[in-house]
Amino acid sequence: MTFSSKLIEKAVEAFASMPGIGRKSALRLVLHLLKQDKSTTEQFTAALTAMREGIRECRVCHNLADSEVCQICADARRDRSLVCVVESIRDLMAIEETSQYRGLYHVLGGVISPIEGIGPSDLHIETLEERVKQGEIREVIMAISPTIEGETTIYYISKKLRPLGVQVSAIARGVAFGGDLEYADEVTLGRSIVARVPYEAK
Question: What ranges do the domains of the chain cover?
Answer without folding.
Answer: 6-54, 77-198
